Amino acid sequence: MDALEIARWQFGITTVYHFLMVPLTIGLGLTVATLQTMWHRTGNEHWLRMTKFWGKLFLINFIMGVATGIVQEFQFGMAWSEYSRYVGDVFGAPLAMEALLAFFVESTFLGLWIFGWKKLPKRVHLATIWCASLATILSAYFILVANSWMQHPVGTKLVDGRAVMTDAWAVFTNNTALVTFPHTIFGAFAVAGGFLLGISWFHLYRRRKEGIDTVDANGYVVVGEDPNRGKNRDKTDYQVWIKSLRIGASVAMVAFLGVALSGHEQAKLMFEQQPMKMAAAEAACHDGTGFSVLSLGDITAQGATNCDNVVAVFEIPGILSYLANGDFTTEIKGVNTLIPEYQEKYGKYYPSDESFGQYAGQEINYLPVMEVTYWGFRLMITLGGLSALAAGVALWITRKGTVPESKWLSRLAVLGIAAPFGANATGWIFTEMGRQPFTVAPNPQMGGVDQVFMYTAASVSPTVTAGEMLFSLISLTAIYGVLLVVELVLLTRYIRGGVASAMPELEAADHSSSGGPKGPDNDDDDVLAFAY
């Protein structure tokens, strides 16, 4: 067993799991703030119901994201102490600002929003959710500044073997961060849009299946009500789901356009800053201009795929050059050209230093796992494209006011929620694993071999054993698995319960008006029901 490999698996599993919550939190936060703004401006009840329903799901996801994110901080010190020692002077600044500024604002104003219903003036209460949602975006920026520095170190110099910040402005305005930030935020809105679309489709389908909503001879919706279910199946309930669906689909399509445009700019930077990552992502073994639509490796080959067993099945000439330089003729360096260049710049072998452990003196493999980079890049694009396509189809299908009475379409809509999550996850896996064998990738613009970079092999804690890492890997994975079940159960329960699950006062009002048991008179009960 190799402590380094186990540590990488542990950080990868916990980070990808945590990142499932992050984009939904970012996207839903601003969505809920917008919905509440519409209620504040119009006074229409369906905007209030939308705010509380989607706000309830936002809270569940936010709390789970906080619980799983805390583990990341501990891993830096426990499993990656050498890395923390090397980058601490730089990395600590954006992380501290994220925790002390962004997260503090985020959590404080979110608490005021949760418990401020009917307590705070409406405008003040609306301001709290805007402050909380904007703070989530600010929090994302600080995290991306830290990560972007790992991808493209700037504003630093080496002092006694450690990276020391010399220019804070350069670190916080790193061009990699400025491109990665909008790409990540648009990806978060794609997740939120798909989330709204799938859940709203499910509820509109239930209304059709139960015979509440019908269609006329021209296919237009005839909105009905179910007196037995009161406000949970009235005409306002219909407005909640049709508006949520169309808002979600619109957001998803705009988000995909933003992801595509920002992703193109990000790819151009990667070709410049990490050419090996992009060469591996395209299985570009040789110099050229062609974009690989499909390349295959030899499945009988021993070990990871390399350029000795990659066969290009179908390429489109000129597209790779366009992605990198904006033209169709400039040849892009392939893996076989880049490997000697990397070896000349950074060395062919790891230093014979005890900090490298069993890797000391071994030959460095500068080619990242090609299967991961190649297929991760394509899965990211494919899943994102499918999400946008589904959103466009949903807008067309629901143009007459409802969804078809089709069980299979309803299931596809619900399953489609997973597509933008998958696009975000595969995108991050590609970004992080494509940086190997570096935890801090070298900045090619700095020149020379004395620039700031760090090998992954030298980043792991020297005193941590493989057995200890394996124990923590199994433990954390098991705990995260339980938390995943808890979140899915909670989300499913509140989603199936509809608006009344987030607004029990609706059911209380129905009982009261029908002569049944009267609901609670204390407004505090409504607030606590929403919070807990």
Automatic annotation (TrEMBL):
Cellular localisation: Cell membrane
Span list, region Disordered: 506-525
KW DNA repair (keyword) present: no
Membrane topology: Multi-pass membrane protein
Keywords for the protein's UniProt record, in alphabetical order: Cell membrane, Electron transport, Heme, Iron, Membrane, Metal-binding, Transmembrane, Transmembrane helix, Transport
Alphabetized InterPro entries for the sequence: Cyt-d_ubiquinol_oxidase_su_1
Xref: PANTHER family: CYTOCHROME BD UBIQUINOL OXIDASE SUBUNIT 1, CYTOCHROME D UBIQUINOL OXIDASE
Protein name (Swiss-Prot/TrEMBL): Cytochrome ubiquinol oxidase subunit I
